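User: Okay, second chain of the day. Same drill as before: sequence in, structure tokens out.
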Amino acid sequence: MQTIWLGGAEWVAVLRIGIGLWWLESWRHKDKKTWFGGGGIGWAAGIAEKHRWSAVREGFNVVVKPRPRVMAYVVAYAELALGLGLIVGFLTPVALVCGFVLNLVYLVLMIHDWAEQGQNLMMALASFVAFFAMSWQTWSLDDALGMFV
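Assistant: Same drill. Structure tokens below.
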């Protein structure tokens, strides 16, 4: 495949790194004091409580609501781990699948908020492309360590 400046594999690595930077920014811009103090999960609880799909309400009430502090840490540090993993290309296929799933969870929770949907759909699509283009084969620790060959 002929491209300008970089080859196809390098452009896919750029996409992977860009997704990682996007996740890192999701982690960075959180007000950690408010988030870990219950603000983030409290906000999500309000969204889930009024959700049009009962499965989302029930799932949130079973999985997240009983453990808001733990889930706040899980969400925040999952975003950090995804960002760092994708930037350096470590356990990249796992990170891409987990990021795709997390974006789908965000997408389903925020199904009524079109402002949020653009970001989640775009990140999910980019993760899908990066996964099936095997973006860990270039500029990654996975490649340097001979993983996922």
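The chain has one domain: 34-144.

User: Thanks, on to the next one.
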